[in-house]
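Reviewer 2 asked us to include a model.

Predict the structure of this chain.
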Amino acid sequence: MDQELESAKTVTTIVYGLQAVSLLLGITYVIAVIINYAKRDDVRGIWLESHFRWQIRTFWFSLIWAAVGFATPIIGLGYLILLANTLWIIYRIVKGWLRLIDRKAMYL
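Predicted model (structure tokens):
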């Protein structure tokens, strides 16, 4: 079980890394969420499940806010939304990664 847990923790770390790299190369964000969904059953029932939920929610909510930001640039609000969204993504990656390093579950 310890090896399975460490393997799942490694996958979770890789997903956080892909999310971070996505700030420069957007495609890695999609790869990260695909990994989340593909490996979701491997973490079901253990503390890492909360990290997967955190990562998946980060993806979907940021996608929604990005769509809103791109839809409203004419009034200037879109740029602020996109900036806030980027800062929020960075916060979620850092917060999740730090809790992962400490072997703590994410908030529900």
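The helical segments are 2-21, 27-43, 48-71, 77-101. The chain has a mean pLDDT of 94. We have added this to the supplementary material.
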